Structure prediction request, 147 residues.
Amino acid sequence: MPAIRSATAQDQDAAIDLVRRLLTELGGTPAPAEAMAAVFGRFADDGPAGFVALAEDAGRFVAVCTVSFVEALRSIGRYAIIQEMYVDPSVRSSGVGMDVLRFALEHAVSRGCAMVELGTPYHGERQIQFYQRAGFTNVGARLRWRP
Prediction:
């Protein structure tokens, strides 16, 4: 069974590789690894911006979940947003994804988050079902605007 833990600065390359694989699988173009590395530093070692959960199995990283902290009036303070969640295809349906997600949820609560939110891909029915099995409620679409 994979070991699940918060990422440290030494895990930077592995975490970035997994996130880049996720973005590629979703049909996007990942940002350069160097640009992602600048952001990763604020998440490593339970940083101020959030944290990164990793699953490692036999020396190979197989899953990642990145969590950002934000604050809002509606949440009466801090809450978390799962930004990226990826499980290597070779271990999907093995339970490791749910284990990483549960670790991330528990860790967010321990860091003072009153709730956790996330978005799924446009046609993410499978992902929605996965998150609902973990206790999430579908509250609507996530929209994006860029200048």
Q: What stands out?
A: Helices lie at 12-25, 33-40, 96-110, 125-133. The radius of gyration is 15 Å. The chain is about 30% helix and 25% strand.
